[in-house]
Design brief:
Distance between the termini of chain A: 21 Å
Low-confidence stretches of chain B: 387-396, 568-595
Mean pLDDT of chain A: 87
Largest sheet of chain A: 6 strands, mixed
Strand order of the largest sheet of chain A: 6-7-8-3-9-10
Radius of gyration of chain B: 34 Å
Strand content of chain B: 15-25%
Shape of chain A: globular
Largest sheet of chain B: 6 strands, mixed, barrel
Number of strands of chain B: 21
Oligomer: heterodimer
Largest interface: A-B, 37 and 30 residues
Order of helices and strands of chain A: EEEHEEHEHHHEHEHEE
Number of helices of chain A: 7
Radius of gyration of chain A: 17 Å
Helix content of chain A: 25-40%
Distance between the termini of chain B: 42 Å
Number of helices of chain B: 28
Strand content of chain A: 25-35%
Shape of chain B: elongated
Structural class of chain B: alpha+beta
Helix content of chain B: 40-55%
Strand order of the largest sheet of chain B: 2-3-8-5-7-6
Chain lengths: 224, 876
C-alpha cells in the first residue's frame, strides 16, 4: 500500500545542510494501522509530508498504492490525493466559509461529484446529525474534528494520514475522537498512518515506528 | 515625553515585518491627497493668475459697455477723458456673416471693431507674430483659426463683412480675457474701427455691443465710476474697473476651485474608509501580539499609542506619496481646462496647498484608524496563553465613551473637510448630506448583497464558483468595504455620465424632431418675402418665423423702473445689460414670500418681444387666457393685453391683472398681464418672455427671426453663402455647429470632472488590493488546505476568479444602480430635464470595473499558487 525507500529530506539552513529525514525505508500493508512517534523535531511531520506527496524528498522514493509519487507533477499528486488519500489535522483545518456539510463534501466536489447526501450520511455517522448547516465557528473543537474525520472518509481513501488528531483536544474528547477514527477505519478497511507523540494513542495502532533525529530507530508490531 | 519614547521604539520594531503591508493600507489615502493637492494648488495658481493678469483680462483699467450707442452723458465723459490726455479706445462688437468669395465659404462671426491702443494691457498674439499692428495699416483683419477653416481661407485672403472687405493679416493665437471655446460658437474677427461704417451692418435691430476702454490709475478709475454712476445707469451703461473684474473672477474661480476640490475630497474619504477597514483587519491579526503585550504589562492606552504611531507614520508616508502624485497631476489640470478659462494658469508648486494636503491626509488616516485601534482595548491578556478564549466577535458590547468620542471626531473631521472645501456652509452641508446619503445607500446595498450571497441558492453552480461566492462572506471578510469603495467610484463616474447624457439629449432630440439646422436673425421686415424665395431655391424649408420688437419696461403698476429698483448697488452694474437672469431662466430665485420685489436685472433688461395671437409648440398656458385672434388690442385710451413667461413673472414680481407700461422705441404702450405661459427654453427655437397681440405691435419697427431646415450639408453651406451675399445684415446661425460646440464644451467639462472622479475609482481598487492582502494568510491557508485535499491549481484559480468577478460585479452594479437614482434626482430637480438611462454605456462601465477588479484581485492573490500543501501540516 505504502512503500518508502531510502527517503531523505535535507534543508539548507544558512551554510549548513540539515537532514530532517535520513534514509528512511519501510512498507505498510493494506489495512494496517501504523503510528509514527518521536519527540518534537524528530522529523515526524516532514516524513508525513513526504509520504502524502505534500513535499518532494531530496532522495528516495515513495509509492502509494503502486504509484511512484516522484513521477507525478504537483497537480498530479493533488489528483492522487483526492483519489486515494485522506487527511486529519491537529487543528482541524476546516474552511471557515463553508458549513459542516459543505466542508465534508469538498473532496468529492473537487472531483466534480455530487456529495450532499453522502456528506449528510457521514455527518450522522460521526454524531453530528442536525449540525449540518453550522459554520466551523459555531462548532466546538471536538465537533470540528468530527467534521474533519467525516471529510477524511468521504471519498473512501485507500490510505488515511492523521497528524496529531487529538493534539488540540482535551483528554476525554480526544479519546472519543480516536475511538471514532479507529471505528471508521475498521469499517472501511482503510490503511491508517498516524503521527503523534502521544504514546497512549500510539499504543492503539498495531505497529509503532519510532523516529529520532530523522531516522527510524525501532519498528514494533503489537499484538492487539 | 519620557514615557513616550520607548513606545516610539516599540512601535517601530513591532512594525518590522508589516511595514510594507501597512504602507499599502494607508496609501489608499494617497490618491485622495493627490487629488486634493492638485486641485488646491491649481486653485491657488488660478487666483495668482487672476491677480497678475487682472488688467490684461480687461485690457484696461476701466471699461464701459452698453448694448445701444452711448448716450450724451457717456460721450461727454469719454470726450473729457480724452481731452485730459487719458488714453481711450472703443470697441464695437456685433455678429455678422463673413464671406470669402474665392471659396464661397460663409460663417457667422463675431466682429470686433477696435480703435488704436486697445488693449492697453496684455498682448493679443497672432500668427504670424506681430500682425495685431496690421489693424492700424488699413482694411486689415485678424481672425480666429476656426473662421478661416470654415471659410477655407488663408492669411492674405480678403473676406467680406457686410459691404466691406478686409484682408486677413493674421490668425488669433491668444486674446487675454477671452474663453478659448467661445470661438466655437462664433469665431472672432477683429477689424479697425475706422472702417466699420463701411460694412453697413450697424442698422436697426442688429445686436451691437458698444464698449469703451480707458487707461488710468486704479484709484482714479474707481472714483470716476463712482462719481458718474447715476448718469451711466440712466444711460444704461455698465462700468467696471480692473479691480472689480478681478474680484468677480476670483469669486467665480473660487467656486470652480471648491467644486474640483470636492470631487477630490471624495477620493480622500474613500481612502479613509479603506484605512479603517485595513486597520481593522491588521489589528485582528495583531491580536496575539496585543495579548502578549498586555501580559507583559502594557496598558491599553500604551497599546493604542503603539499602533496609532504606526498608523500615523505610514499615513504620513502615504500622504507624502500622494502629494508627489498631486504635484504631477497639477501639471495636467491647466491643460485640460485651458480653453475653458479666460486666464492662463501657471503650474507653480504651491507650498501651502502641499502642506495642507499632507496634513489633511495624515489627519484623515488617523481619524479613520482610531475606531479599529480602540477595539484593541478589549483584547484580553488571557489570549496569549489560551488560544481560543471567548472571542470578542461573539458578544457585541455597547459603545463606551471613548468609542463615541472617536465616532464623533471622525464625523466632525469629515464635515470640517467638506465644509472647508465647499466654501459656504450651505453648500458644505448639502455635500456632506449628499455624501452621507450615498455612502449609507451603498453600505446598505453592500449589506443586502452579502446577506443575499449567503442565502443564495448556488447549488446548481460548479464547486469553484460556489466556493468563490461563499468566500464573499468569509469571517472577517471585507466585502462591504470593497463594494462601498469600488461602488462609490462607479457611482461618481456613472452619475457624471448620466447627467451629461441627459443634458445633451433634449438638444439632440429637439434637433431630430424639428430637424431645424439654421437660425436666421435680423431679417428686416422688407426682406422677408425675398428671403423666403431665396431659401426656397435650395429646398430649405422655413419651419418657424417670428417678428421681434425690442423694448424696455417703463413702469410696473404705475411705478417707474427707477422707482422700482432704485439707483442700484455697484455690484449689479455689470449685469445691467445682461441677456437673461444670472442663472438662466429657471435658475435659483428667492422663493420666500409669494411676491418678493422685482429683480433689478429683469426690470432693466432689454426685451426682444414678439406678437402673435396663438401659442406655439414650446409653450403651455398656465394661467389666464390668450386673446382672440385679432383681439387683445387697446380700445381708445385703454390698455392692451400681454402674455408673460412664468419665470419672468416671478422675477418681475407681478401677477395676472398687473399692469406694465413698455417703452417701444420711445412709444409708451400700457398693458395688462392677462395670461402666463410656461415656456420650454431648452428647445432651440425662438422663445419669448413677453408676447403681444398682433393688433398692438403689428406696426412697430421690427425684424424677423426664422428657423429653417436645409435638406443637406451642401444646402446648409449654400444658404449661408447666398444669404450673406444678398442680405449682408442678416446673420445665419448654423445650429449643427452650435450643437457640436455645446457637445465640445460639455465634453471638456465632463472630461475634467471624470479625470478627478477617476481618482475615486483608483482608490476603490487600492482598497480592494488592501482587502485582498489583508486576508492573504487566510487565503493561502485555505488554498493550501484545498490542495492537500486534492484541488488542482486550475480549481484554485477558478475559485479566486469567481470570488473577484462576483465582487466586482456587485460593486459596479450597486454603484451604477445608485447612479441611476442620483442621475434621475439631478435631472428632475436640479437640471429640470427628462431622464433616460443609456443602458449599454453603463453596462460597459460595470463590465470594465468587474474585469479590472478580477485582474487586481487575481494579481494580488498570485501568492497562493506558490505555497506547497506541506504548510497545512507545518502550521500546526
Amino acid at each position: 500500500m505504502l512503500i518508502a525507500e531510502n527517503l531523505t529530506k535535507a534543508y539548507r539552513s544558512g551554510q549548513q545542510q540539515l537532514a530532517a529525514v535520513k534514509n528512511v525505508s519501510f512498507r505498510v500493508d493494506p489495512g494496517e494501522t501504523v503510528a509514527i512517534v518521536g519527540p518534537s523535531g524528530s522529523g515526524k511531520t516532514t516524513l508525513l509530508g513526504l509520504l502524502a506527496g505534500l513535499d518532494r524528498p531530496s532522495s528516495g522514493t515513495v509509492r502509494v498504492d503502486g504509484t511512484d509519487l516522484g513521477a507525478l507533477s504537483e497537480d498530479g499528486r493533488a489528483r492522487l490525493r483526492r483519489e486515494k488519500i485522506g487527511f486529519v489535522f491537529q487543528s482541524f483545518q476546516l474552511i471557515p466559509t463553508l458549513t459542516a456539510r459543505e466542508n465534508v463534501a469538498v473532496p468529492l466536489e473537487l472531483r466534480g461529484e455530487a456529495a450532499g447526501a453522502r456528506a449528510a450520511e457521514l455527518l450522522a455517522r460521526v454524531g453530528l446529525e442536525g449540525r449540518e448547516h453550522h459554520y466551523p465557528a459555531q462548532l466546538s473543537g471536538g465537533e470540528q474534528q468530527r467534521v474533519a474525520i467525516a471529510r477524511a472518509f468521504i471519498h473512501a481513501p485507500a490510505i488515511l494520514f492523521a497528524d496529531e488528531p487529538t493534539g488540540n483536544l482535551d483528554a476525554a474528547t480526544g479519546g472519543r475522537i480516536v475511538d471514532l477514527l479507529m471505528e471508521l477505519n475498521r469499517e472501511q478497511g482503510t490503511t491508517l498512518v498516524l503521527v503523534t507523540h502521544d504514546l497512549e494513542l500510539a499504543a492503539r495502532a498495531r505497529r509503532i515506528l519510532r523516529l529520532a533525529d530523522g531516522a527510524v530507530v525501532s519498528d514494533e508490531r503489537g499484538g492487539s | 515625553m519620557s514615557a513616550f519614547r520607548p513606545l516610539l521604539g516599540l512601535a517601530w520594531r513591532e512594525s518590522r515585518f508589516a511595514r510594507r503591508r501597512l504602507l499599502l493600507f494607508l496609501s489608499s489615502i494617497s490618491l485622495g491627497v493627490a487629488a486634493l493637492v492638485a486641485t488646491q494648488s491649481f486653485a491657488a495658481n488660478m487666483a495668482a493668475g487672476v491677480r497678475d493678469q487682472s488688467r490684461a483680462l480687461l485690457g484696461a483699467d476701466v471699461a464701459f459697455s452698453s448694448n445701444r450707442a452711448f448716450g450724451k452723458g457717456t460721450e461727454t465723459l469719454l470726450h473729457v477723458l480724452r481731452q485730459r490726455g487719458t488714453p481711450v479706445a472703443r470697441v464695437t462688437s456685433f455678429g455678422s456673416m463673413a464671406l470669402l468669395e474665392r471659396t464661397g465659404g460663409a460663417r457667422l462671426a463675431q466682429v470686433r471693431a477696435v480703435e488704436g491702443g486697445y488693449p492697453f494691457y496684455g498682448a493679443i498674439e497672432t500668427e504670424p507674430a506681430g500682425e495685431w499692428g496690421a489693424l492700424a495699416r488699413g482694411r486689415e483683419a485678424v481672425a480666429d483659426a476656426a473662421l478661416l477653416a470654415a471659410l477655407d481661407a488663408r492669411v492674405g485672403d480678403s473676406i467680406s463683412l457686410g459691404e466691406a472687405k478686409f484682408r486677413v493679416a493674421g490668425i488669433l493665437r491668444k486674446v487675454p480675457g477671452d474663453v478659448g471655446v467661445g470661438s466655437l460658437f462664433a469665431p472672432r474677427v477683429y477689424i479697425p474701427a475706422r472702417h466699420v461704417a463701411e460694412t453697413g451692418l450697424l442698422r436697426f435691430g442688429s445686436r451691437v455691443q458698444y464698449e469703451a476702454f480707458a487707461r488710468m490709475p486704479q484709484a482714479e478709475a474707481k472714483r470716476l465710476v463712482e462719481a458718474h454712476r447715476p448718469m451711466l445707469r440712466a444711460e444704461r451703461v455698465g462700468a467696471r474697473t480692473a479691480d472689480q473684474q478681478q474680484r468677480e473672477l476670483q469669486r467665480a474661480f473660487g467656486r470652480l476651485g471648491s467644486f474640483l476640490g470636492l470631487v477630490g475630497t471624495f477620493a480622500l474619504l474613500l481612502g479613509g474608509i479603506g484605512v479603517a477597514s485595513a486597520m481593522g483587519a491588521y489589528m485582528a491579526q495583531k491580536r496575539d501580539t496585543v495579548a502578549v503585550l498586555r501580559c507583559l504589562g502594557a496598558t491599553a492606552p500604551q497599546v493604542i499609542a503603539v499602533y496609532a504611531l504606526q498608523a500615523g507614520a505610514m499615513g504620513l508616508v502615504g500622504a507624502l506619496l500622494g502629494a508627489g502624485i498631486g504635484m504631477a497631476v497639477q501639471w495636467v489640470l491647466p491643460r485640460l481646462l485651458a480653453d475653458l478659462l479666460p486666464i492662463e494658469v501657471g503650474t507653480a508648486i504651491d507650498l501651502p496647498s502641499l502642506a495642507t494636503g499632507v496634513g489633511i491626509g495624515v489627519w484623515i488616516a488617523l481619524a479613520f484608524a482610531l475606531l479599529p485601534l480602540l477595539a484593541t482595548r478589549r483584547i484580553s491578556p488571557l489570549e496569549a496563553i489560551r488560544r481560543r478564549v471567548e472571542s470578542a466577535d461573539g458578544a457585541r458590547r455597547r459603545p463606551d465613551g471613548w468609542t463615541l468620542f472617536a465616532g464623533l471626531l471622525l464625523a466632525a473631521s469629515i464635515a470640517a473637510l467638506v465644509l472647508a472645501q465647499a466654501g459656504t456652509v450651505r453648500a458644505g452641508l448639502g455635500f456632506t448630506a449628499g455624501i452621507a446619503v450615498t455612502l449609507a445607500a451603498l453600505w446598505a446595498a453592500a449589506w443586502a448583497v452579502t446577506r443575499l450571497v449567503r442565502r443564495a441558492r448556488t447549488a446548481g453552480l460548479p464547486y469553484p464558483a460556489r466556493q468563490g461566492i461563499a468566500n464573499l462572506h468569509r469571517p472577517g471578510n471585507q466585502t462591504r468595504v470593497v463594494v462601498l469603495a469600488l461602488g462609490f467610484g462607479v457611482f461618481l463616474l456613472a452619475t457624471l455620465y448620466l447627467t451629461q447624457h441627459n443634458l445633451l439629449r433634449p438638444l439632440r432630440l429637439n434637433a431630430a424632431q424639428t430637424r431645424a439646422n439654421l437660425l436666421l436673425f435680423d431679417v428686416q421686415e422688407e426682406q422677408e418675402g425675398e428671403m423666403a424665395a431665396l431659401l426656397g431655391q435650395s429646398g430649405t424649408q422655413v419651419l418657424q418665423k417670428a417678428p421681434i420688437v425690442p423694448m424696455r419696461i417703463h413702469a410696473i403698476n404705475g411705478k417707474t423702473a427707477a422707482q422700482l429698483v432704485g439707483p442700484g448697488t455697484p455690484d449689479d452694474s455689470v449685469v445691467v445689460e445682461e441677456e437673461g437672469p444670472p442663472d438662466g431662466p429657471t435658475g435659483e430665485r428667492a422663493r420666500d414670500g409669494a411676491r418678493s420685489g422685482p429683480e433689478a436685472w429683469a426690470v432693466r433688461r432689454e426685451y426682444r418681444s414678439t406678437f402673435r395671437d396663438t401659442l406655439v409648440g414650446s409653450e403651455t398656458l398656465q394661467e389666464g387666457r390668450m386673446w382672440r385672434p385679432g383681439g387683445g388690442g387697446a380700445p381708445a385710451g385703454g390698455i392692451a393685453e400681454v402674455s408673460l413667461d412664468v419665470a419672468i413673472v416671478e422675477d418681475l414680481g407681478v401677477a395676472l391683472g398687473d399692469t406694465i407700461t413698455w417703452d417701444v422705441q420711445g412709444v409708451r404702450i400700457p398693458t395688462r398681464v392677462t395670461s402666463v405661459r410656461e415656456v420650454d427654453w431648452q428647445r432651440l427655437e425662438p422663445n419669448f418672455f413677453a408676447v403681444f397681440p398682433s393688433s398692438v405691435l403689428g406696426d412697430a419697427p421690427q425684424t424677423w427671426v426664422m428657423l429653417a431646415r436645409a435638406p443637406d450639408e451642401a444646402a446648409r453651406l449654400a444658404v449661408q453663402r447666398d444669404v450673406v451675399r444678398r442680405f449682408s445684415n442678416v446673420a445665419v446661425l448654423d445650429l449643427t455647429e452650435v450643437q457640436a460646440a455645446i457637445d465640445e464644451v460639455l465634453g471638456r467639462v465632463a472630461a475634467v470632472i471624470r479625470f478627478l472622479a477617476a481618482f475615486s475609482v483608483a482608490t476603490g481598487f487600492i482598497v480592494l488590493l488592501g482587502a485582498v492582502l489583508t486576508s492573504r494568510l487566510q487565503r493561502i491557508r485555505e488554498s493550501v488546505l484545498l490542495r492537500t485535499l486534492g484541488a488542482t491549481r486550475r480549481q484554485i484559480g477558478a475559485i479566486l476568479l469567481a470570488e473577484y468577478v462576483s465582487l466586482g460585479l456587485l460593486a459596479s452594479l450597486a454603484g451604477a444602480g445608485l447612479a441611476v437614482g442620483a442621475g434621475w434626482a439631478l435631472a428632475r430637480w436640479i437640471f429640470e430635464v427628462d431622464f433616460a438611462v443609456p443602458l449599454s454605456p453603463l453596462l460597459l462601465l460595470a463590465a470594465a470595473v468587474t474585469a479590472l477588479a478580477a485582474a487586481v484581485g487575481f494579481w494580488a492573490s498570485r501568492e497562493v499558487f506558490r505555497h506547497t500543501p506541506l504548510e497545512a501540516l507545518r502550521e500546526e
